[in-house]
Amino acid sequence: MESQPTMPQPPTARQNPAAGRGPRGLFTLRGLGRDAAVAATCGFVVVLMVGASYAAVPFYDWFCRTTGFNGTTQVATSGPAGAPLARKIAVRFDANVGPGLPWKFEPEQTEIEVRIGEVFTVFYTVTNQSARETTGAAAYNVAPLTVGAYFQKINCFCFTEQTMAAGEKREMPVVFYVDPALAADSENDGLNTITLSYTFYPVREPAPKPLASSEPDKRKGSL
């Protein structure tokens, strides 16, 4: 008997160089492209969030100083241009010390009555009760919180860190006035009292400066 002619077989997927470019291979490439895009987007969001976290603190501080938000007082370079108003308001003074700072901190007067637009100077007394030099910085606000935009400070110890020698006692002035614009704010028509509050917190000691390359290291003994 004569043998039947052998029919040619189609090339297998391994032999067919175009197999990877079929619909299934195309979907695989598209899937990889989507995964890369998602990964890149997630990475960008992470970087954006980290950057925002670093910028949040200075931005919040700037926002509070500019708007008086959360009872943050304002900074003025001089007193108001016009004469003080006849309306008077009581200003109370509060003093606090945070944990870890061995200071005694108190106002010399707990309350005074001022005319709106009149510049006043009051003093706080601070005593370092420890046997070593310590440094503190004051956080501050006024209550009611909505009055922060109208409470103007010309000079204040809270603008800079304060370093006190062991046992040192110091008078620290605050020069301020209540902005006459407060009288034009109908929401504050019934306001009779403002409380100015300070809290001193400890500041970590600065790290020792590295010795310059040209300076001998005195900590090492002579050879």
Describe the fold and architecture.
With 223 residues, the chain is α+β, with helices and mostly antiparallel strands. It folds into two domains: 24-67; 74-202, Sandwich (Ctag/Cox11 (Pfam 04442)). The protein contains one helix and ten strands; from the N terminus they run H-E-E-E-E-E-E-E-E-E-E. It starts with 22 loop residues before the first helix and ends in a 21-residue tail after the last strand. The model is unreliable at 48-71 and 217-223 (pLDDT under 50).
Number of domain units = 2
Q: What's the name of the CATH homologous superfamily of the largest domain?
A: Ctag/Cox11
Report the CATH C-level class of the largest domain. Answer: Mainly Beta
What's the alpha carbon Rg, rounded to whole Å? 35 Å
The largest pleated sheet is described as: 5 strands, mixed
CATH architecture of the largest domain: Sandwich
Number of strands: 10
CATH topology of the largest domain: Ctag/Cox11 (Pfam 04442)
The secondary-structure class comes to alpha+beta
Terminal CA distance reads: 107 Å
For the biggest β-sheet, the strand order reads 1-7-9-5-3
Q: What is the overall silhouette?
A: flat
Set out the fold topology.
Layout: H1 23-67, E1 74-75, E2 88-97, E3 103-107, E4 111-115, E5 120-128, E6 134-143, E7 151-156, E8 162-164, E9 169-178, E10 193-202
Parallel strand pairs: 1-7, 2-10
Antiparallel strand pairs: 2-4, 3-5, 5-9, 6-8, 6-10, 7-9
